[in-house]
Amino acid sequence: MTVVLAPIDRSCPADPPWIRPRAAYIHIPFCAHKCGYCDFASLAGADHLANRYLDALAAELELALDGPRPVASLFIGGGTPTRLNADQLSRLLATIARWFPLLDDGEWTVEANPGTLDPDKVDALASGGVNRISLGAQSFQPSSLRALERNHDPDDVSRAVALIAPRFDRWSLDLIFGAPGSTLDQWRDDLDRALALGPSHLSCYGLVFEKGTSLWKRRLDGLVRPVDEEVEHAMYAETIDRLSAAGLLQYEISNFARPGHESRHNLVYWANDAYYGFGLGAARYVAGVRSVNTRDLPAYLRRIESGQDATGPVERLDPEARARETAVLMLRRTAIGIDREDFRLRTGFDLDALCGPSLRRSCSRGWLEDDGRRVRLTRSGLFLADTVMSDLL
Ligand code: SF4
């Protein structure tokens, strides 16, 4: 199995990728409509602020950086970046390319939603340097799309893929299982229909009722209820089995890819490497300090336009807490797990001295496997990953 590890720059040990970022995230918050489960920094009905937002983003980059920072990975997420029109997308990409020139063989991903792409936008993305698209399909069942309060229909997904696939070798579909009212058969159909479109990468997440979302309120009011735990368990098992049978290998708890098509950007997060983040609500992790921008759009615009940064909470973890966090993130990588030598190099801690008792507990329960070099989740551990990880913390 080919698995891409976040690159370790051993030529410059004083400036490794867990200290100096080689990745950048840019957030575009605009959406056509707020989905029922969405807890992201996104908003509908604010498109009239898009040009002002792009100006602010450029000003934020100018304020924060004293020169271009070459990176191996760029990710424009949202929100719905493809809610911008083609001219706005071109302008955004030019701004980003100026500050974050992409290294050779670098990955540049843009998130897109069905129903928001057209040939001009796809052309703007491809000619602007983007080489990977992540499409939020979520489901092919009209009833699940309604339950999730998505505002597209299943055919919009295939129409979007018809635009993307001829221009991008690397593209991914996002799916959600466990929508209220959904069945195991419907989820099997979702997986089959996703595979039939030929993605090289699939992200499959179980639905989470995030506090404050419309879906969470509907659940509190008794208007919807989650699918039964056994059904959700069976849906996840089906995901692992069907996708691996189709040649998409599981490289993270919720992510599957053809060899060589793993998301390099997400591997940066799961190695606990450093990354830049700009835009509304964007998080960054630089030199061991994690900070996040305000999620309030008027406040973001006001602060940037008056020459201030938009940073909200800042967290500086002590070395031991950082090392434990690194162990948890690395464990998400189901194929690689935690490599003891890599862990020591990155954190300065010996894995067994730090986490020995909890690792042994999970190994003895059959949730982790340990070959002396690496520790990884077993298949049964995948279903109990939260328990294994909270024990490590
Ligand atoms: S399209 Fe994505 S970001 Fe926008 S509201 Fe829906 S889930 Fe949230």
UniProtKB/TrEMBL annotation:
CDD domains found in the cross-reference section: Radical_SAM
Keywords: 4Fe-4S, Chaperone, Cytoplasm, Heme, Iron, Iron-sulfur, Metal-binding, S-adenosyl-L-methionine
Subcellular location: Cytoplasm
Domain of life: Bacteria
Gene3D superfamilies: tm_1862 like domain (3.80.30.20)
GO molecular function: 4 iron, 4 sulfur cluster binding; coproporphyrinogen oxidase activity; metal ion binding
Primary location class: cytoplasm
Domain Radical SAM core: 16-249
GO cellular component: cytoplasm
Coiled-coil region: none
GO biological process: porphyrin-containing compound biosynthetic process
Main function: Probably acts as a heme chaperone, transferring heme to an unknown acceptor. Binds one molecule of heme per monomer, possibly covalently. Binds 1 [4Fe-4S] cluster. The cluster is coordinated with 3 cysteines and an exchangeable S-adenosyl-L-methionine.
Listed NCBIfam families: hemN_rel
Protein family: Belongs to the anaerobic coproporphyrinogen-III oxidase family. HemW subfamily.
Protein name: Heme chaperone HemW
Organism the protein comes from: Tautonia sociabilis
Gene: hemW
